[in-house]
Fold this protein.
Amino acid sequence: MKKLICIACPVGCHLLVDDQLHVEGNKCIRGEKYAIEELTHPTRILTTTIKTTSVTTPRLSVKTKDPIPKELIFDVLHLLEGLIIDKDVKIGDVVIHDILNTGIDLVATKSVTINPFH
Amino acid sequence: MKKDLVIIGGGAAGLAAALSANHPNIHILVIEREKSLGGILNQCIHNGFGLHVFKEELTGPEYADRYLEAFLKLNIEFLLDTTVVDVKKTDDFELTVTSYETGLFKINSKAVILSSGCYERTRGSIAIPGERPKGIMPAGSAQRYLNIDGYLVGKRIFILGSGDIGLIMARRMTLEGAKVLGVAEIMPYSNGLTRNIVQCLNDYDIPLYLSHTVTNVIGKERLEQITIQEVDSNFNPIEHTEKIFDVDTLLLSVGLVPDISLFDSLDFKRDPITKSAVVNQFYETSVSGLFICGNALHVHDLVDYVSIESEKAGKSAQNYILNDRKQSNHLHTIKFNENIRYIVPQLIDFEHLEANIDLSFRVSKKMEAAVFKIIQNGTEIMTKRAKNLAPAEMEKMSLKIDKLIDDSPITLLLEEVSL
């Protein structure tokens, strides 16, 4: 039996998982999915920011649209280090398609206007 | 300038209140002191928002955007970069307002919703011993510098207090290349959501020192070194438990306090625990027409609950303006036992029992299993079982008004039970 605390939402259900990956203690289906993934192949949604050339919004906040393998988090951050956004971006726009061949897109979580005084 | 409703603060609470108060016969004005609407959500770039309201997991800016889009469609008037500096109440409210562009001006309003959020407790409010170098700041300030302005405030970080902002910043600063050496919490349990301990500390092997606090600070110009010590059950440092860390930054996540100092001149009843106003089920204070919601009323851990509460406050203000609904004298305080720290609303107006009443409260200590009981006139009218209760996580219970047997006061009891 393994004890886990679900991080799928802020409720934080206390989960019990047996060797056959049978999950107990979850209040919703996300808990079961989380427990099985956490014990076989842990993933996380990554949120961070990217530099922009906008005067009013110097950072664009972004996220991976779906969870990525935990071990790739710092590789993705490394990839974003030199990146500079110099075009207008709308919330939900894909900033990087299929990041590090994960099949998962990096998307903007806010809108940025590079020159708002235009 | 004359308005029906002024909403002070255009963050999660203010936007939700504006949406629900909106009506063709009500002239609303939202006043926001920042250069954009959305409030603290704008700097909370992490995910985990919206699971209750939108049934999906959003980041802070995305959650704000949902409300913002709906708000902008309604063409509700708003002022940015504008601050309220004084409030007076006669029949109406008279607000003194200022902005860089306009200078001082007055606004009269029939009703006011205060949705001004909360502020972070600072080093001064917890009296850390030692020197006074730079490099010590509230975690939320560091979050703003990093996520909005793009500045990392230090390279070697220690965090005092295990509030959610501290935990979120422990991860965030690690991702940005800083080394976070640990988090110290004076209580024997964490003050943040459990999921944040897992995904912010455990994921990155950041140690959490429970029952520890900072007992010395060293640094001439910039912070150089801190000492932490274990504390006993009276929070006194225990000798020979000192641990020394060489750090350039100490972030404080030691609590949030509702920001209502603007209304100090108004004489409304206060709750010493929430450090805000006492309200009835309409989120109305003892000053007629003054409503409070969101973190200005009590500090929430989920924005979803801020939105739900503020929607109700907005509806109440609408009802106050359109139907002239006045608070009755038939108010009873909700009583509770020592296992509960506070309840919001504190009062029930028994003359206006229109809908079920959302009770929000925090427990005083960790409990594995417990049962909540609502008692009226010696009779148990409602019960609810709960597991894994913690002071850091707000509890909710809906008081069904058809269960009330008469108009006598109610009591909420929390009793620990064995599993």
